[in-house]
Design brief:
Two copies of one chain form a homodimer. Chain A is α+β, with helices and mostly antiparallel strands and 294 residues long. Chain A folds into two domains: 136 residues, 60s Ribosomal Protein L30, Chain: A (2-Layer Sandwich); 142 residues, PurM-like C-terminal domain (Phosphoribosyl-aminoimidazole Synthetase, Chain A, domain 2), CATH 3.90.650.10. The first copy, chain A, has ten helices and 13 strands. In chain A, the strands form two sheets. A seven-stranded mixed sheet of chain A has the order 8-10-7-11-9-12-13, sandwiched between helices. A six-stranded mixed sheet of chain A has the order 1-2-3-6-4-5. In chain A, strand 4, helix 4 and strand 5 form a beta-alpha-beta unit. In chain A, helix 3 packs parallel to helix 4 and helix 3 runs parallel beside helix 7. The radius of gyration of chain A is 19 Å and the shape is globular. The interface between A and B is large, with 67 and 68 residues.
Chain lengths: 294, 294
């Protein structure tokens, strides 16, 4: 069975862009980047499906909130300021307008927080509830994955693994009131402010949606460098699991929406350093390219 | 069971925009319109689902083509020039990469024709094949639904009803080689060039996706006017059905993606006139607000 990466690679090959104003096209970065006059516009599309992406016990407004959050996370990863959002939503048979209103209120709640205008939407009927979001942002300077340089330090806006840990607790029988980090699972915070702050001095950046390992590999590959990780304090996770499991969650779990970036300043949780070569390493061992697959 | 219009109205109420640069927001027109410096940008999102929207015997590349076509039709309806396209696609279990490649080639075929750059995409797993598209266009002057004036003449870029006629022929047992207008069903042509041409002199405009009747009602309501239709030559349809059925298809069938617009010049197939009052009339009788429902 083909993986998501096979499709992404195929599409990137087919949809190469020829316009000089397109600084990043399909599959190249977290957002497409287009020069519009003196500004840079970023565009991103991301979809969520009931079964693959929404955790159990999720409320309807949280589905709306998350649909915007995952798109804003992509905008944040470019160091851009989000401005506009459009969505399409697939409604199943007999989906009540009350639920749709709650869904919209969830989108609006997060939109207001970051000054985003919801300027369009489309509803259609289908077999499974799903949402596709399209976000537009603007920036003077964008953070591309391909800009890491040997000698850069690597930083993270927050410890990853919390969403997956919480999900596993849910599956083990805990309720949403009992799990460790419910907000990471139900209302993840896109790192918009952090992205804007680091856009002044960071070099490469991406968000962590599938796993930290995958994000690091993407920066390393796009920049033609290696990344050497160093041991990081995982006590936030180790309150709930042993240190081996904590490291597994930190590196390979998805759904946290933190930003990982490189720069030569001191900024955030330092997790490693950019080195010559290729690949991602921790304590001399290869960190695999794997993470959450839908 | 709520109709699509209930959801659209609800969302428009919740997502009202406060920014002065947003000239048309959620639910107001075929696209959202945003002033970006000296240009106007238009944004639209539209989704298609296997069961509700793709006709039987459709080829994979035609699904890609149509996903872009329906979005370009919205851009055309604003009199804007399409520039960028992003999509999300829901892939079912075991969807082969060969089919996905064919799908992408279909998007690319139409994109090249109109100079559109496909700059982003996202794939996710789900229960039903579906595509959401997001198109961006630019214009110096946009054609809003609310700009029709009493005395304007009403025009259409082509006779509507052909897609539905062809679909009914398919359901009656004909093959795709035998139906009357296969290209209307499988590879509808977005009226991009016509939209750009009329943008210089037309007043109100919209595309016909759900039905001509619905589009006319939308222009009439948004402009605070009535529309009086006149008899139109429907011989293209009457080759296949009687005149009563031809009129039903012309007014109430969906899926043709023609443009309907008002102006005081002579341009296109004249179908009526803008009058004082409200509603849409033909031969003194009300034309209903109904059309294709998914």
């Amino acid at each position: 069975m083909p993986s998501e990466w096979d499709y992404v690679e195929l599409a990137s090959r087919i949809f190469s862009s020829s316009r000089s104003e397109v600084l990043a096209g399909a599959g190249e970065d977290d957002c497409a980047v287009v020069r519009l006059g003196e500004r840079l516009a970023v565009f991103t599309a991301d979809s969520l499906h009931e079964k693959a992406d929404f955790p159990p016990q999720m409320r309807e407004w949280e589905k709306g909130y998350m649909s915007l959050a995952v798109n804003l996370s992509d905008v944040a990863a470019m160091g851009a300021e989000p401005a506009y959002f459009l969505y399409t939503v697939t409604l199943v048979e007999n989906y009540p307008t009350e639920k749709f209103e709650e869904f919209c209120r969830g989108v609006l709640k997060l939109a207001k927080k970051y000054g985003v205008d919801v300027i369009g939407g489309d509803t259609d009927r289908g077999d499974e509830f799903s949402v596709s979001g399209f976000a537009v942002g603007f920036s003077g300077r964008v953070l591309l994955r391909r800009c890491a340089e040997v000698g850069d330090r690597v930083f993270l806006t927050g410890i990853t693994g919390k969403a997956q840990l919480s999900l596993e607790q849910l599956f083990s029988g805990l309720s949403r009131e009992e799990i460790a980090f419910p907000e990471k699972l139900y209302t993840p915070e896109p790192r918009v402010r952090e992205g804007l702050r680091i856009s002044r001095y960071a070099k490469a950046c991406t968000d962590v949606s599938d796993s930290l390992a995958i994000s690091l590999h993407q920066i390393a590959k796009a920049s033609g460098v290696g990344i050497e990780l160093k041991p990081v304090d995982l006590s936030e996770l180790e309150e709930f699991v042993d240190s081996k499991k904590a490291l597994e969650l930190f590196l390979y779990a998805g759904g946290d929406y933190e930003l990982v970036y490189t720069c030569d300043d001191d900024a955030g949780i330092e997790i490693g350093r950019v080195v010559e070569g290729e690949g991602v390493y921790l304590n001399g061992r290869k960190v695999e390219f794997r993470g959450y697959t839908h």
